[in-house]
Amino acid sequence: MDVHISTSTVAGIARAPPSKSYTHRAILAAGYSDGATVYDPLDSADPRATMRAVEGFGGTVDRPETEGSLEISGFDGTPEVPDDVINCANSGTTMRLVTAAAALADGGTVLTGDDSLRSRPQGPLLEALDSLGVRATSTRGNGQAPLVIEGPLAGGEVDIPGDVSSQYISALLMAGAVTEKGIELNLTTELKSAPYVDITLEVLEDFGVVAEPVGASGADGVRSAGAEGFVVEGGQQYSPEGGTYHVPGDFSSMSYLLAAGAIAAADGESVVVEGAQPSAQGDSAIVDILEAMDADIEWDRDAGEITVAQSDLTGTTVDVGDTPDLLPTIAVLGAVAEGDTVIENCEHVRYKETDRVSAMATELEKLGASVTEEHDVLTIHGSDTTLSGAAVEGYHDHRVIMSLSVAGLVAEGTTTVTGADHVDISFPDFFDVLDNLGGAVDRTE
């Protein structure tokens, strides 16, 4: 599907979808338990991949039609050897979290995914599992899927880098809690995306599991910031209070709605985003970033509502070491802002569904933006930019697609984004929401 966005204004109330990051972890945590109900999960392609994995390991996932919940019967810390290959589709989170779960099974598990997922790095996690006594290999010998994992994993001490993917750490912490010995992780490099590990720690705590960072500074309220490692004791039981867990709203998805309001809200009106209760999500930093760019924005944390109006934005400098998923949104804001917007510490953003640094630089230039791309820095020269509608590539990447669609609201004329159906990964109703807010949206197959 292609989507065509014409110059338009937006206003009204919208609700962000549930958090994809929390949904993944909650589904798998329920799988590690003997059973739990997950309320308000995100129903999209990526979490469905994690559901399939739980079922592959011997659990069951039932979806009552009217309750907005998942009834999960878990494998109680001991996954079965799957009858078939586990297809993680396009979900990197699924593959990494499930790779460690597969290591607990007393036998072999094969994990694969689509073309994009089979190009993403898994090597450090495979090496860590191998050093813990698990046979963990890439069938092509390149550290990429398809993967073959043969357990069982008993636990132990292991070194792992922290600057490739925080999901490696999350995967080992979740699995380590049900091993015999537990797992002690020593980080060999600085931890990137620390708030995502905080999400894992928060979900673990809600499921009655204790894991702790070692040597962390806790800077800016991020519990894992500056951590030298992590420790999780073995022999723990996943068991949420009352057998239930509620998924919070997703700030990564909110960022597109907030950006739309900041650059395209109708005169005298605003966009109100509901479901914005505070949590460990690092991407809530989008509020601070918009404030730094002089946006007219207000967050009522008690009500869980963020209100934003069209604003004369100014450029700023943002370090996305902990918030990689915000890069596409920030890049679009920078194209509308006065002055330069400098996005620093972004090398790891090149290893997502696509190289998002290069993708955003290339496609924004097609729309008329002035961009300087370096390996670890992306600079958007807003003062030298006038956005005009054009045909742009979505790279089969939900975050690139949604960000470019927001840019289309203020580009002169019509912007066509290809492969727009891939928003199903995290925000299936995105274009309906944008349309309901007043955006001029047309879809073609």
Automatic annotation (TrEMBL):
SUPFAM superfamilies: EPT/RTPC-like. InterPro entries: Enolpyruvate_Tfrase_dom (IPR001986), Enolpyruvate_Tfrase_sf (IPR036968), EPSP_synthase (IPR006264), EPSP_synthase_CS (IPR023193), RNA3'P_cycl/enolpyr_Trfase_a/b (IPR013792). Its EC number is 2.5.1.19. The active site is at D325. It comes from the Archaea. The keyword Cytoplasm applies. GO terms for cellular component: cytoplasm. This is 3-phosphoshikimate 1-carboxyvinyltransferase.
